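From the pipeline queue, job 12 of 40. The input is one protein chain; the requested action is below.

Action: predict structure.
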Amino acid sequence: MKMILSLLLAIMAVNAQAKSVEIMSYNVENLFDATHDEGKIDWSFLPKDAPGKKEACAKEKSKYRRQECYDADWTDEKVEIKLSQIVDVVTKERAGTPDFLGLVEVENPNVVGRLAKKLGYENMEMTDSPDNRGVDVALLYKTSPDIKKISRAEHHVPVDYPSRNILEVEFTVGGEPLTIFVNHWPSLANPDSWRVKAAEVLATRVKEILAKNPNMGIIAMGDFNTIDENNPHPFKTVLYKDNLFSDLADTFKADKSISDDVKKKLPEGTYYYPPKNQWNMLDHIFFTSALKDGKNLEIDVASFEIYLPKFALKEVRKGLGSEDEKDVKTFMVPNRFDTSAKTKEKMGFSDHFAVVVKLNFPEPAPVKKEEKKVEKKADKKKAKKK
C-alpha cells in the first residue's frame, strides 16, 4: 500500500512540475496593408484611387483578374477590420494567445507588426520572399523565461516562378532545443514537382540540423498545398523518407489512447473546395522523433486541434433540390474572407482552419538553499583568486 501511495505521489509531483507551450499555424488569407510595395503585384489590395493602380490593372492578362483589380477598393479601414477578425479567431474562444503563432499569407512587416501589437506579441520573425504578389510567412512568439530565441534564417525554394521562402527560427524551450519552420509551398495550380522541390529544401536543412544535434526537436508547420492526388507526392517521397518527419494529424488518428468519439469531432480537413465538394488537408504540423522520445520536450498528440471558433464558420448544404431530404448534407466550413465587404459582419475571416498543438516539458527543479550556498562560496573563491 505504501509503495502504491509513493508511486501516486511521485506521479502527481511530476505532473505538477510539467509545463507546456502552445503552437498554432494559421493561414489568415491575404493579410495585406493598403500601401503599395515597390516591385510587387499587390494592386488588388490597394484603394481604388491609388497612384498607378489603373495602369497596373490594365496589364492583367486574365479578364476576370483585370476586373477584380479595377473593382477592388482595399482601404486602411478594411485592413483594421481584417486585423480585428484575426484577433477574434486567435483569442475569443481560447484561454489566451499561443506561445508561437505561425502566420501564412501575410504581406509585410508593417501589417504583421500591427497584428502582433493587437495580439500582445513583442517578438516576430518574417521572410522577405521573391513572391510576385509580396506574400510571405511570419512567426510571432511570446516573451517568456522559458522561450529563448537562438537564431533565424530563411530558405529560398528554387522553382520556375518566384515563390515563398521557408522561415526557420531556432529556440530553446524550457532549456531544450527546438527549431520551428513556417511554410507556404507553391499553390496547387503549379506542378507537383514544385512542391517536391520545397520538400527537398526543407528536408535538406532538417538533416543538416540533426547531423549537428540529433536531440533537436523540429516542427515544420504551415500551408503545404498538398493533396493525396499529387504525384510525385512531396510527403511520401521526401518528408516521410527514412522517418524524417511524422504528420501530427495522422499520429493523432492512429493513437489508440484517444477515443474514437474525440477523433470523429476532428474536421475532415483544413480547407474546403466547393467546386468538388472536397475537404483537403492543406495545413499540417510535422514533427521529428526527438519530440516523441519520452524525454524532456514532448509533443502532446492528444492536444492536437483543427480549429476555428464557431463564429468564423458558415453552414453549407449539399444536395439541395433532391426529392429526398435525407440526401441533403449540412456541414460547417470556414467563412472565407471577402475583400469587397465593408462591414465586420460581412467580411468573413479566412478560407482555412488553424492547426494547434501543445509541447510539454518539465519545469527545472528548484535549486536547494544548501546548493545555492555552495555556489556562492565557489564564486567567492574564484573572485579571490582573480
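Job complete. The CA atoms of residues 24 and 356 lie 4 Å apart.
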